[in-house]
Specification:
Layout: H1 3-14, H2 18-29, H3 37-44, H4 48-80, E1 87-90, E2 103-105, E3 108-113, H5 123-138, E4 144-149, H6 153-159, H7 165-169, H8 173-183, H9 190-196, E5 202-205, H10 206-209
Parallel strand pairs: 3-4, 4-5
Antiparallel strand pairs: 1-2, 2-3
Helix pairs in contact: 1-4
Length: 228
């Protein structure tokens, strides 16, 4: 099934309130005999083509994330880089590319996080941000170190939080072992590490740099002091 047709199929099914539609289907199923199921599913618009279309879109989602990462970086570079600044390398793809950061120039090393922060329980996003920030901070270079984010209030709240470093790194043994070899038990919370060392890395909000280009997280209008 082509992606366009899949999107149209899902859109037709989701027209209106999807949650209400699913809830209605649940109620309709109550007390229903097996013999009546096929006709009822037809009445509800539940078809195998909807499932196939949703599966196609789900498979495409990973590629969309790669596209956002690559194009987001590329369209930002002309305005981020300084006059005369030379790109050493770019790492635009997903996964392990063999290069330590998304961008290195003759003046900076940087990571880009095109994350849709929502302000709730976001431990996976937080863990990913911490890993990138730590690796930049620990990098043996005198170049400028930056993490570009889409909306900085939620990332900065996390970096100023009392969340334990053990919790942040408990699913990445390699990172935890490296961190502890370097710093031992010197830090126990994210805030302790960030205030002493993490601020060597600059957090740059792409939404402020390019208003309207990137989607700001909902409620992302609070200011968190970088220095306190």
């Amino acid at each position: 099934m082509e992606l366009t047709k899949a999107a149209e199929e899902v859109q037709r099914f989701e027209s209106g309130n999807l949650t209400a539609r699913i809830s209605g289907a649940e109620k309709t199923m109550e007390g229903l005999s097996a013999e009546r199921l096929p006709a009822t599913l037809v009445d509800l618009g539940i078809r195998e083509s909807v499932l196939k279309a949703a599966t196609v879109l789900k498979g495409a989602l990973g590629q969309v994330n790669v596209l956002i990462h690559a194009v987001g970086i590329l369209t930002s570079l002309p305005e981020i880089l300084e006059p005369g600044e030379i790109i050493s390398y770019l790492s635009l793809g997903a996964g392990n590319t063999g290069r330590p950061f998304d961008l290195e120039t003759d003046r900076r090393v940087a990571e880009f996080k095109f994350i849709s922060w929502r302000g709730g329980a976001e431990s996976i996003r937080q863990n990913s941000l911490f890993k990138d920030l730590y690796l930049l901070q620990a990098a043996d270079t005198s170049k400028r170190k930056q993490v570009f984010v889409t909306g900085d209030s939620y990332p900065l709240k996390f970096l100023h939080s009392a969340r334990s470093l053990k919790s942040v790194m408990n699913r990445n043994r390699k990172l935890e072992d490296e961190f502890r070899r370097r710093y031992g038990d010197r830090f126990t919370t994210v805030r302790e590490y960030y205030l002493e060392l993490g601020r060597e890395v600059e957090i740059v909000d792409l939404c402020r740099l390019f208003p309207g280009r990137f989607e700001s997280p909902p409620g992302d209008n609070e200011t968190v002091d970088h220095q306190t």
